[in-house]
UniProtKB/TrEMBL annotation:
Residues 350-538 form the B30.2/SPRY domain. Neurotoxin that produces dose-dependent hypolocomotion and hyperalgesia in mice. May directly act on the central nervous system, as it is 6500-fold more potent when administered intracerebroventricularly than intraperitoneal. It comes from Podarcis lilfordi. This is E3 ubiquitin-protein ligase TRIM7-like. InterPro entries: B30.2/SPRY, B30.2/SPRY_sf, Butyrophylin_SPRY, ConA-like_dom_sf, PRY, SPRY_dom, TRIM/RBCC, Znf-RING_euk. CDD domains: Bbox2_TRIM7-like, RING-HC_TRIM7-like_C-IV, SPRY_PRY_TRIM7_like. Residues 150-191 form the B box-type domain. Residues 73-115 form the RING-type domain. SMART domains: BBOX, PRY, RING, SPRY.
Length: 538
C-alpha cells in the first residue's frame, strides 16, 4: 500500500503528463506481473528440456540454475542485453527493457522489481554484469553440448563419447574429432578441465557482481542513515533551542515566543504551499480528464457531427496540450528559514554564559557597505575611485584644508556614521606594515599632533613592525596578538558600548573594547595606513 502511495505522490510531483498515464500504468503493471509469472514457469520448463545431461540434472536445484537466474533480466526473462543498474536499489535490467517499461516519462520513475522511486538519469551501465552474462552463456553452451554422466552423450558424427573440449570452436568433441584436420591446430582440453575453467571464471565474475551489489546496498543504507540523521538533528536542534531559551528564565521569554512563532509561521507556510499546490494540481487534473473524455466522445461521433464546430473544438483541445510545468512546491526561502533556525541554535549554545551582553549581536548584526570620506583623508593618502581602498603616497596632494581633514596624522574616516544599533564591516589588510582600523568619534581632533586612544575617541587595532597592537585606555599600545589575519572584521555595538575585532576568515576574536564610552556621540569607521600597505574594504 505504501508503494502505491509513493507512486501516486511521484506522479503528482513530476507533472500532468505522467499523472494522465497513471491508470494505463496500473493496468500494464498488472498485466506485466501476470505475464512475468507465466513466463517464469514456461522458462523453467524450457530450461529443463534444453539443458541435457548433468546440466539438466543440476538445473533442478543447482548452481547452474542460480548462475542462469543471476544473468536473467526479470522483465524479459532472457539473458541480459546491455545491462544497466539502478544505484538507488541495486537492481539490474536490460537497457531496452527498462526504457520500454518506463516509456517516455522523464525525471522520477519506479523500479520494475521493488517499485522504489528512482531517478531515471542515475541509471548506469553494469560492465561487470555484462561480462558475467557472456561467460554464463558460454558455460550454458558448453553444458548444452556436453555429455552428462549416465546419459550416454556421444558425438553425432563418430558415435564416440564427448570427452574433450575445443576452445576455438567452444564445443565438446570426441577423440576422433581431435585427430581430424578440422581440430588439428586447435587447443583441446579435457571436458572436465574446460568446465572447471569456465566455472572459475563465472565464480570470479559472480563474486565481482555480488561485491558491486553490496556496494550499492551500502550506498543505499548510508543514504537512508544520513537522511535519518538529518531529521534527528533537526528535531534535536528544535528541542535544544526550546530548552536553552527556557533556561534563561524571564530575560529570554520574549525571545522564545518570538522564535516559536516564527517557526510556526514557516510550518504554516509549508502547509499552505502544500495545500495550494495540491489544490492547483487537482483542478488541472479535473480539467484534463474532462478534456480527455470530450475528445474520446468526439472520436466516436459520426462524421457529420464530428465536423460541427471542429475548429473551436480543436482550439480548446490544443490549449490543453502545452500546459506550463507546475511551479516549485517549496521555494528556497522556506529552506533558508529552516537552516536559519538550526544556525541560530548553535549561536544560543555558545553564548549562554554571556548572553545578556551578546544576544543582540547574534540576532540582528548588520553588515555595512562602508566607503571612505575624501573630505577627511590626509593629503598623502590616495583613495580609489570607488572609495573602497586607501594607500599612502609620500608626496602630499593639493587638497583644500577643510575642517574635517586630518592634516598631520595619516588618517581617513568612513563616510557612514552610526549612533545606534549594531554594525560591522570588513577590511582586507594584507601582510605589509603599517596600518590600523577601528572606530572614531565624529568629534575627534583633526589638526596637529595628538594622543590616540579610547580616551581621545579612538578604538583601533593595527600592525606596527611584526606585532599587532591595540590602543589601551592609558594611551601606549600593548602587544596582544600573534598571527597574520588577512581580513579584519570591525563590529560596533552602539548601545552595548562595545567595539570588537575579529579575523574575518576564521571568526576568531582578536580583541574587544568592552564598556567603551561613546558618550552618545556619532561614530565613524577609522583607517590608518603608511608605507606599502593598502587597505581595502570588502
Amino acid at each position: 500500500m505504501s508503494d502505491f502511495t509513493d507512486w501516486k505522490k511521484y506522479n503528482i510531483r513530476t507533472g500532468m503528463r505522467l499523472h494522465i498515464s497513471r491508470h494505463l500504468d496500473a493496468l500494464s503493471l498488472n498485466f506485466l506481473e501476470r505475464k512475468h509469472t507465466h513466463l517464469q514457469k514456461e522458462k523453467r520448463k524450457r530450461d529443463q528440456l534444453s539443458l541435457p545431461g548433468a546440466v539438466a540434472v543440476a538445473a533442478s536445484g543447482s548452481p547452474v540454475r542460480d548462475l542462469c537466474e543471476e544473468a536473467t533480466c526479470s522483465i524479459c526473462l532472457e539473458y541480459f542485453r546491455d545491462p544497466v543498474i539502478i544505484p538507488e536499489c541495486g537492481h539490474n535490467f536490460c537497457r531496452s527493457c527498462l526504457t520500454q517499461y518506463w516509456g517516455k516519462s522523464e525525471g522520477e520513475a519506479s523500479c520494475p522489481q521493488c517499485r522504489k522511486t528512482v531517478k531515471q538519469g542515475s541509471v548506469r551501465p553494469n560492465q561487470q554484469l555484462a561480462s558475467f552474462v557472456e561467460i554464463t552463456q558460454k558455460f550454458s553452451l558448453l553444458g548444452g553440448k556436453m555429455e552428462a554422466k549416465g546419459k550416454g552423450r556421444v558425438c553425432e558424427k563418430h558415435q564416440e563419447p564427448l570427452k574433450l573440449f575445443c576452445k576455438e570452436e567452444e564445443a565438446p568433441i570426441c577423440v576422433v574429432c581431435d585427430r581430424s584436420k578440422e581440430h588439428k591446430s586447435h587447443e583441446v582440453v579435457p571436458i572436465e578441465e574446460a568446465s572447471l575453467e569456465y566455472k572459475d571464471q563465472i565464480s570470479s565474475c559472480l563474486d565481482n557482481v555480488r561485491k558491486e551489489r553490496e556496494k550499492i546496498l551500502v550506498f543505499k543504507a548510508d543514504a537512508e542513515k544520513e537522511s535519518q540523521d538529518l531529521l534527528k538533528q533537526m528535531k534535536a536542534e528544535r528541542g535544544k533551542m526550546v530548552a536553552e531559551i527556557r533556561r534563561l528564565h524571564q530575560f529570554l521569554e520574549e525571545q522564545e515566543k518570538l522564535l516559536l512563532v516564527q517557526m510556526a509561521e514557516v510550518e504554516k507556510e509549508i502547509a499552505a504551499k502544500r495545500e495550494e499546490q495540491l489544490a492547483r494540481l487537482s483542478r488541472e487534473l479535473s480539467s484534463l480528464e474532462c478534456a480527455i473524455w470530450e475528445m474520446e466522445e468526439k472520436l466516436q461521433e459520426p462524421a457529420s457531427e464530428l465536423l460541427q464546430d471542429i475548429r473551436s473544438f480543436l482550439q480548446r483541445s490544443q490549449e490543453k496540450e502545452n500546459l506550463e510545468d507546475p511551479p516549485v512546491a517549496f521555494p528556497p526561502f522556506l529552506k533558508w528559514r529552516n537552516w536559519d533556525f538550526c544556525d541560530m541554535n548553535l549561536f544560543l549554545e555558545s553564548v549562554m554564559k554571556k548572553f545578556r551582553d551578546t544576544v543582540e549581536y547574534g540576532l540582528q548584526l548588520r553588515k555595512e557597505k562602508v566607503t571612505l570620506d575624501p573630505d577627511t583623508a590626509h593629503p598623502q593618502l590616495i583613495l580609489s575611485k570607488d572609495r573602497k581602498s586607501v594607500s599612502w603616497e609620500g608626496v602630499p596632494q593639493d587638497l583644500p584644508d577643510n575642517p574635517e581633514r586630518f592634516d598631520t596624522n595619516l588618517y581617513v574616516l568612513g563616510r557612514e556614521a552610526f549612533k545606534e544599533g549594531r554594525h560591522f564591516w570588513e577590511v582586507a589588510v594584507g601582510s605589509e606594515e603599517e596600518w590600523a582600523v577601528g572606530v572614531a568619534r565624529e568629534s575627534v581632533k583633526r589638526k596637529g599632533k595628538f594622543t590616540v586612544g579610547p580616551k581621545e575617541g579612538f578604538w583601533r587595532i593595527g600592525k606596527w613592525g611584526d606585532q599587532y597592537r591595540v590602543s589601551t585606555r592609558n594611551g601606549p599600545p600593548v602587544s596582544m596578538l600573534v598571527g597574520e589575519p588577512k581580513r579584519i572584521r570591525v563590529a560596533l555595538n552602539c548601545e552595548g558600548g562595545r567595539v570588537s575585532f575579529h579575523d574575518a576568515d576564521t571568526a576568531a576574536l582578536l580583541h574587544s573594547f568592552s564598556e567603551a564610552s561613546f558618550s552618545g556621540e556619532t561614530l565613524q569607521p577609522f583607517f590608518y595606513v603608511r608605507k606599502k600597505e593598502i587597505l581595502r574594504l570588502s
